[in-house]
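Exercise 3.2. Students should predict the tertiary structure of the chain below and write it as structure tokens, then compare their answer with the key that follows.

Predict this chain's 3D structure.
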Amino acid sequence: MDTSLQQTYFPDLPCFGCGPANALGLQLQSFVDGDRVTASFTPRPEHDNGLGFLNGGIIATVLDCHSAAAVTHAAHERGWPADPGVPLPYVTAGLDVRYRRPTPLRATLTLVAEVREASRDEITAHVRIEHDGKVRAEADALWKRWRAR
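Answer key:
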């Protein structure tokens, strides 16, 4: 697949982390890689935590938004697209982030997401940031079906 999952499923989304329509955002581009979804992310200098490492809020955003690509892809693969009137089939209901070690600010990071469980009502995914062969941060993400109200 040459087109990112973000461009495939939500090209007009203005989300700061994963929205292709947000020129000032992180512009994550995730791709299917077997049973997982991967991406590369290079932080910008303004993502500094004040100590020369990647800011924890940016880390959480990257984990959340990369899992969005994996979850949305899993939903479409299972025939569960977004309901009429909502832009995405699922919305973040929980994100349990664990910071394992400092995440470099001046390096290209690898993102990996794997869907763990999926039902029409909710999908769970495990997502992580890796660099230099080590997990820097990881999260379990819970996504609930987004229903129009």
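Discussion points: The mean pLDDT is 96. The two ends are 34 Å apart (CA to CA).
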